[in-house]
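Following up on my earlier message about magnesium ion. Here are the inputs again, as you asked, copied directly from the submission form:
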Amino acid sequence: MAGNKTFTMIKPDAVGAGNIGAIIKMIEEAGFSIISMKYTRLSGERAGQFYAVHRERPFYEDLCSYMSSGPIVAMILEKDNAVEDFRNLIGATNPAEAAEGTIRKLFATSIEANAVHGSDSDDNAQIEGSFFFSEIEKF
Ligand code: IDP
Ligand code: MG
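Thanks, got it. Here's what our run produced:
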């Protein structure tokens, strides 16, 4: 059965562009509850750990530089079928391919600077949430 939690980050491009509020409004209007939230910044090393699954990809070094280039907002979200519904809300990785009305279509500037992260499975939602939040910070 699908779980009810996912993990997201508002990425440095969207934070820098002043889109935190607009993105959180879309997330809440889509029925997600924010159960943990943190405004923070990743070091290059921490970004590398978070995206370790991509370390063999050609864009890995650029991705780690970009993700550590400015502050981010990390959140754990709750909703029925959270992982799949959130991936639908954010749209395709490449904003040029993202559906109308999705967060990436509205706010992403490139395939790299694509405004938001969304976990791709229940297991990764758990792992990624734990990367930013200790048990005591999780509601
Ligand atoms: P996802 O964020 O939609 O799950 P992934 O394939 O897991 O996409 O890639 C992780 C992140 O790496 C993307 O969100 C994006 O920031 C970056 N990325 C993915 N593919 C490319 C690419 O081809 N060029 C540059 N950056 C990329
Ligand atoms: Mg991914």
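One observation from looking it over: The beta strands are 5-10, 33-40, 72-78, 116-118. Hope that helps, and feel free to reply on this thread.
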